[in-house]
Design a protein that fits this description.
heterodimer, A: mainly alpha, about 0% strand, B: about 0% strand
């Protein structure tokens, strides 16, 4: 009798596989990184805990009736969760810094180079085009865009892609400085940039998200959900009559969907799906994407400087802020500038480039969704 | 090799596409800023 009871209580332990044990370790590491190191805790903690849930033998959290599987079908497969996050992000973005120096928009384009470089490398390694595009989009340095594209093109890689995207976003202060230093001279890092403080009219801030949505929708219809939801969130922020909704989008909506997004993605992080060579490749390629993004931004700034007069020269470090990791990248660049020269304030141009990167990453996601099907 | 060649074409078209988008957005920003200049009260 006692033996039967013990069997029914602890029998599942006998079913555990070594891959599940590895995943329990990875889940614990994610929880540790989130709490002890504060690496993107909003996402890594739910993902870490979810990883524990789905890798226990006979887990009822996954499977046809499992809660996480139901969340996945309802929130990720339908793209609802990433799109809701875009509303929240849009409500958080202040585009006015960009209006004061529109030239910096170009860095939001240049610093997406890592995405496309990584797609090429991934395809050389042997991933098919859809998988390669999903891996390359890690370089968007924008979790929801990565999840959105991967859920459309390579759902089976969603787990490692999400882990890589959010981990490297947290590691921007470690990844970017050595790349920037390797590509710039001290003289270039000392360049000071003049900050502009022109006022931006409310009409401009209201019209901007509407016009951008229309342009993007006409040129690349596949990108309309991504850009449209981002700009909708921004319109809520800027219209001036929906303060409560704007705050709700920035706080409650963002928090709720982030919890659901994180724990739902973990449903793809089973031992069988995650513990394989592809995961190692994806983690490595994600790093390549971030490095090449940084290099793209810095080198483009150096190229622009060839044509710009001395008084308008751009500190090449600002180019690296063209990735979407906001505001982490802008802070890193500002700190690097201060380390070289205490009197050099690069925060404003770096924030502008960083905001441009947020637009650029979404555009890149939309373009990939548009282009890849043509080459299949 | 076909996949790699496709990825290179996507790289070219993708980077070109982003720059065109950003240039368009820049023009929109510049035009809006000129047509509706801000006042110090809005700063």
């Amino acid at each position: 009798m006692n033996q039967d009871l013990l069997q029914s209580l602890f029998g599942s332990l006998a079913l555990i596989t070594w891959k599940q044990v590895v995943m329990l370790g990875i889940g614990s590491i994610l929880i540790y990184l989130a709490i002890a190191k504060k690496y993107e805790p909003n996402l890594l903690l739910p993902m870490g805990f979810g990883t524990l849930l789905v890798n226990l033998p006979l887990s009822s959290a996954i499977g046809p009736d499992g809660a996480l599987t139901v969340f996945f079908q309802a929130g990720i497969k339908t793209e609802v969760f990433p799109l809701l996050i875009f509303i929240a992000i849009g409500a958080m973005i202040d585009f006015s810094t960009l209006f004061r120096n529109p030239l910096l928009l170009l860095f939001g384009a240049a610093a997406q180079f890592g995405i496309f470089f990584t797609i090429a490398v991934a395809s050389l390694i042997g991933f098919d085009l859809k998988e390669a595009a999903s891996i390359g989009i890690i370089g968007a340095a924008d979790g929801p865009t990565s999840i959105y594209v991967a859920s459309k093109f390579a759902e089976h890689l969603l787990g490692p892609i999400s882990v890589a995207a959010y981990s490297y976003m947290a590691l921007v202060p470690i990844i970017q400085p050595p790349v920037i230093k390797a590509l710039t001279t001290r003289k270039e890092r000392l360049i000071r940039m003049q900050g502009k403080q022109d006022p931006v009219s409310r009409t401009t801030l209201i019209l901007f998200p509407i016009i951008i949505t229309l342009i993007a929708g006409i040129i690349a219809p596949s990108s309309i959900a991504l850009i449209g939801f981002l700009m909708f969130g921004n319109l809520i922020r800027e219209c001036g009559v929906l303060q409560k909704l704007s705050l709700a989008a920035q706080n409650e909506l963002s928090s709720l969907v982030t919890i659901l997004l994180g724990i739902t993605i973990s449903s793809t992080m089973t031992g069988e799906a995650f513990v394989n060579l592809n995961t190692l490749f994806i983690i490595g390629l994600g790093l390549v994407a971030f490095i090449m993004d940084t290099a793209g931004g810095v080198l483009f700034a150096k190229l622009l400087n060839v044509f710009l007069p001395d008084r308008l020269k751009i500190n090449p470090m600002v180019g690296a802020a063209g990735i979407s990791a906001f505001p982490m990248s802008a802070r890193v660049i500002h700190k690097m500038g201060q380390d070289e020269d205490r009197g050099n304030y690069l925060l404003m141009p770096a924030v502008s480039a960083n905001v441009a990167g947020q637009i650029g990453s979404v555009i890149a996601g939309g373009l990939i969704l548009t282009l890849v099907p043509y080459f299949l | 090799m076909n996949t790699f060649m496709s990825s290179l074409k996507i790289m070219g078209l993708g980077m070109l596409g982003i720059f065109i988008f950003m240039l368009l957005f820049g023009i929109v920003i510049y035009a809006l800023h000129k047509i509706f200049p801000g006042t110090n009260a809005e700063k």
